[in-house]
Amino acid sequence: MVLSARPRTGGAGTGKILGSPALAFVGIGWYLATAILVPTGLGVWADRSWDTEPWFTLLGLSLGLAAGLRGAYTQLQDVLRRQRPGSGRADGGENQ
Q1: How many angstroms separate the most distant Cα atoms in the chain?
Q2: Cα 33 to Cα 78: distance, rounded to the nearest angstrom
Q3: What is the average pLDDT across 9-18?
Q4: Long-range contacts (CB closer than 8 Å, 24 or more residues apart) made by 77-83
Q5: 50, 68 in Cβ contact below 8 A?
Q6: Distance between CA 74 and CA 24 in Å, rounded?
Q7: Where along the chain do its domains lie?
Q8: Average pLDDT in the chain
C-alpha cells in the first residue's frame, strides 16, 4: 500500500457535470434574469423614492435587457464554440 500526498483525481462522474453544456445554459439563464431584475428593481425603488414613476423603472428595464441580452449572447457563443467539432476534440483534424 502506497500513501501519497497528492489528492485523488478522476473517478466516476468527475468533470462531466461541471463541464456540461446544460449547466452552462442554466448559468446563462441566471445571468439573464439577474441582469434584468436588478436594474429594474433599482428603478422601481428610485421611482418610489423620488415620485417619478415609471421613468426610472423603464430606464432600469431597458438597461437590464440590453446588458442581459448582450452578456447572454456572448456566453452562448462561448458555449457553442466549445461544442463545435474540431475545437480540441479528437475528431477535429482527421479530414485534412
Answers
A1: 74
A2: 19
A3: 59
A4: 79/21, 79/24, 79/25, 79/28, 82/21, 83/21
A5: no
A6: 12
A7: 21-83
A8: 82
